[in-house]
Design a protein that fits this description.
With 341 residues, the protein is α+β, with helices and mostly antiparallel strands. It is built from eight helices and 19 strands.
């Protein structure tokens, strides 16, 4: 599949990659330049490969409350919530953002790889429509994103994890980079025109930079830090699980023994951590990398890892096995890069 903005990307010189069945821009120049642009000014991403679902019904809020780990009752029209859909075993079907349109309508953004799975699963419980093709999805991220987007929409009063409607377009103050920014859901024709204008003001960025930025920010990626077999607690997402309510998989999550939990790793030697690399402490394997990259902002290799519970200590000295060689590293919390206030 190809994004409706593909011709614009080609004209901008994008290099493409396959992701979740989509042909998407990987980079327009260098990943390092794109990451630095987002951290210092503004970058724009086409994320139309994401899935967009609309759920409706008189009792939809109660049903979503049971199907998710976070407390949907805290939502109100104009509020966005990060949430997790869990299975009977307590594993994660998908991590999503839920937009409350009104008491009987919710807009849900799902991961591209899980779009069909989540749609068919939700159909068993609620009235759901896949509206993905009705929108392009654009992310404008970085400290100057408000300044840039304000030239086209009055977004200055949108607070973090809130959204506003502009006709049929939805603009939320959300993102996947750890920086201030917005996600725009808009019809393909208007979206193409808007993207053409925004790339005059912000640097176009691809999925390569997006992955580096989300690792620097400590955000999970489905298939790496999240899966049907990984519980939210193992993924260090406890703050998004409300045990005061009943939800699908709650009992299984509470019963499962947690042996490894997500933590950060920072290399002290030259190298780049990659998924699957093993972490050692005094020749004993204590963990495995779920996501790794070179951080342009820290100028070193960083990783998210599943680490043995007893070894999750700040500045714990460990070794990372990279292509048969052990490199010195330390364990640490994340985010690795924090947004400047």
């Amino acid at each position: 599949m190809e994004t409706p903005l593909r011709n614009i990307h080609k004209r901008l010189g994008a290099k493409f990659t396959e992701f979740a069945g989509w042909k998407m821009p990987l980079t327009y120049g260098t990943i390092i330049d794109e990451v630095r642009a987002v951290r210092s000014s503004a970058g724009i991403f086409d994320i139309s490969h994401m899935g967009r679902l609309l759920v409706k019904g008189k009792d939809v809020k109660e049903k979503l409350q049971y199907l998710t780990t976070n407390n949907v009752n805290k939502l109100f029209p104009g509020k966005v919530q990060y949430n997790l859909l869990t299975n009977e075993k307590g594993g994660v079907k998908d991590d999503v953002t839920v937009y409350m349109l009104d008491n009987e309508s919710f807009f849900i953004c799902v991961n591209a790889v899980n779009r069909k799975k989540v749609y068919h699963w939700l159909k068993e419980f609620v009235n759901v429509e896949d509206v993905s093709d009705k929108y392009v999805q654009i992310a404008l991220q970085g400290p100057k994103s408000e300044e840039v987007l304000s030239k086209f929409f009055d977004v200055r009063d949108i607070k973090y994890y809130r959204f506003k409607m502009f006709g049929n377009a939805i603009i939320s103050r959300t993102g996947y980079t750890g920086e201030d920014g917005f996600e725009i859901y808009i019809n393909p024709k208007d979206g193409a025109e808007l993207f053409e204008e925004l790339v005059k003001e912000a640097k176009p960025c691809g999925l390569g930079a997006r992955d580096v930025l989300r690792i620097e920010a400590g955000f999970p990626l489905y298939g790496n830090e999240l899966s049907e077999d990984i519980t939210p607690l193992e993924a260090n997402l406890d703050r998004f699980v409300d045990f005061s309510k009943d939800f699908l998989g709650k009992e299984a999550i509470m019963k499962k023994e947690i042996r490894r939990k997500l933590y950060g790793l920072e290399l002290l030697e030259k190298g780049v951590p990659r998924k699957g690399y093993k972490v050692f402490k005094e020749n004993k394997e204590i963990g495995v990398v779920s996501s790794g990259t070179f951080s342009p902002m820290l100028n070193k290799g960083i990783a998210l890892c599943f680490i043995d519970i007893e070894e999750r200590k700040e500045k714990n000295e460990v070794e990372l096995e990279v292509r048969g060689k052990r490199l010195k590293a330390i364990l640490r919390g994340y985010p690795f890069v924090r947004r400047k206030k």
